[in-house]
Model the fold of this input.
Amino acid sequence: MLAFAGWILQVTFAERNHGWMLPARSACLATPRRGRRKAPSKKGFGAAEAASPVADAVEASSVVSNDRIYSMPGLYDMAFGYRNYKEEVEFLIGQHQRLHDGKAPTRTLELAAGPARHTITALESGNIKYGIALDNSPEMVNYGIETAEMELDVDSLESFNYIKGDMVEFELNDFGTPVDSAWILLGSLQHLTENEQVISCFQSIYKAMSTGGTLIIELPHPRETFSLIECTRNGWEVPLEDENGEESGELEVVWGDDNDEFDPIRQVRQFTVSMKVKGAAGKETSPDLQSVREIVPLRHFTAQEIDALARISGFRVESMHGALCEGVDVKDDLEAFRLVCVLQKV
Done:
């Protein structure tokens, strides 16, 4: 998940207003890589299987100043709408089952959850019985709750709980039964730039987790850490449609720009992140749809660092993968583009 300090774009759902939405996508696409593209093309992150993973449409109101993390949930949700959440949840559940003789987790915790798409998808598909999402942004929490209310049936909605909290240090005492599996996805752990923060986060998860529980972390592949002498642009474009299914423009996303400052001692890159809505040719965009550009410090982790931090915190690394997708070896030079670590509480 990503910290946006400075701007907030409020969005409302299609039942109330009309505006932008994402078109249907193919079943399995991947994370965008360096360069600009209309649609990612390799396996891994995944694309939405059918319609937009955000609400059917969104309308923007005025932009106001806000210093909280994840203050633009609507744009964030659109930017990552290409991911195949169903496939990724199946991978997450499958990794837990592999370590528990085929038994799926009953209760899960998604940290720095943002729109909480993985938890909502897991509940919607019946993969879990109870899902908790946690984020320290009130905008993201409210957005996730609204999304769950729209997409989950009554029984599943009763099993969903989104709480405002800091992933660095938290307690789930009010929820009684410990969680079986915890997820830190979309590189969210990168926001914890100091070892003390990571250890505190892992220890908080340890306390909230049942014995033998799993912690699954998704990060950029370590090869990126060793190729940052000259930072290059990583961006993609999300096509948008109006309420009639006609092309209305695109959302341009930049996730790291040329010559971002990188500190090789701390392994922290000053990530340039920008999102901009552009109207299609001959169509005007709403004057309220503003572009946003922020500089976000993000840490790059190596595999051995994750192993050491896990051991300190009471976990062990059981396996590493090159994507949130079955069959991608972390050492595969062509297919592996993420570092997915499966940890188990010992």
The chain has one domain: 11-224+300-345. The two ends are 27 Å apart (CA to CA). The mean pLDDT is 80.
